[in-house]
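Subject: Predicted fold for Alpha-glucosidase, 537 residues

User T.R. writes:
Posting the sequence so we have a shared reference for the thread.
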Amino acid sequence: KTDTDWWRGAVIYQVYPRSFQDTNGDGIGDLLGIAQRMPHIASLGVDAVWISPFFTSPMKDFGYDVSDYCDVDPMFGSLADFDVLIASAHRLGIKVLIDLVLSHTSEEHSWFKESRASRDNRRANWYVWADAKPDGTPPNNWLSIFGGSAWQWDSTRCQYYLHNFLQEQPDLNFHEPDVQTALLEVAQFWLDRGVDGFRLDTINFYVHDKQLRDNPPLPEEERNPITAPAVNPYTWQNHLYDKTQPENLDFLRKLRTLMNDYNAAAVGEVGDDQRGLEILGQYTGGDDLIHMSYAFELLSGHMPTASYIADVFEKVEAVAAQGWACWAFSNHDVPRHASRWQLSDAGTRCFATLMQCLRGSTCLYQGEELGLPEADVAFEDLQDPYGKRFWPAFKGRDGCRTPMVWEPSNQNGGFSSGSPWLPVSHEHLNRAVTNQEQDPAAILHHYRRAIAFRHSHEALRKGAQTDMSADGTVLRFQRANEEETLFCAFNLSFEPAVTDLPEGKWRQIGIELGSAGPAPDGRLHLGPWQPALLMRV
Ligand code: TEU
Ligand code: CA
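User M.O. replies:
I've generated the structure tokens; pasting them so everyone works from the same file.
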């Protein structure tokens, strides 16, 4: 019988196509490259792959600006190549999630070209158009995530249009029923082509406030002095109105109904610094909504301490107990966590194990399995428009988007025979896949073992998570289902630590992950970054 719950507790591997594997020497990764490297992905033991956008696009935001949702950009290949990719994944038992960017299109999408041509054409209301204020300024104070006003003047319609991201990414108007229908058709197109689900970009931006009310400024004490205003004044506004409208759920319900017919699943990206977990709960709390919500709490700048993680899960319990999170430490938008949190390899391993013990689904970003640090990208090599705008206060997202390193011998790390669109980091070469394959102590093997550990314990995948607490630097919690109860402890520190076992009899497991067992004094003596994994007997 079909497993409708396959997504619950699944391990997802994120591929950024531009930087995974180039097969035709143009310096840009492509779909056939992903198909060719599918055995590597499968070797990790993951359940699914999420592929960042490969649709037709002018690439102003590297594919997150789509000009044709139902075709492949020639830079990445063709629809036939996509069929090859799906077949290669399915042969290896891997589900394929594609990245649907439905909140906005590219300004070059035919829908937008038509919409901007006049105020009375059939797609006139497909985007968010509004008149200027009497003094000619934008309709309200909404800001773009990528800097400046979220409104762009259009001289043909003599109106402003809304863009939450780049001005080349106009926001679709979800209040228009035909827009929703058109987007559901896009989803169906790909489901019919065999995809197993979606990563949904910025789902809390779908519906805007119809009344276009001003966002209140954030109270001074809640402002983040590091991120604003030099980096982005966006973080100094309380985004009450420009995103997260209740009608978002109506659209998600329609999408869910469609996905059910295909046994597909979706992970929605909820980006909200202020109410992230609450929204996660609202969007995933029912079986008529989306399946998983991508959580930002472990993508934050500071290394999560034991007490921080315990607080996060207390909050999950309070506002999202019925919801389902998808946890990630790294992705294509933030500096790689090995650098962001200044981890040693031991720290990286410890967090890798911790992630696979958490309740929720989990998401790895390409290169994470190699323990890659953030790459240094010089200003001259910068590609990310976000980085170009805020350099040097914010260096943009290119440092996590440099090409994968497959072989150390080749100067482009086996990524491309041509000149890569972003330079391969020389610092990365000694961590290339073939190097680590030969070294049993390498981090790559640790990732495989951590994922295998999760898959060998149903309680880790789907069980309850209870008694989470911080004992100094040690994070402690239990995972349980009807068959087994596990106790997990992680010493998130460069210093050793001691912690007690819970009541009862426990047997040490996870030795292959460096798990500690009870010492003669009955307590757990943990080395720096050491876990203790035990099963109730
Ligand atoms: O990212 C949305 C995004 O920028 C969030 O991570 C944001 O930082 C957060 O909502 C702030 O609270 C997605 C894609 O991942 C990114 O690559 C795109 O540039 C963006 O959407 C626009 O499509
Ligand atoms: Ca290529």
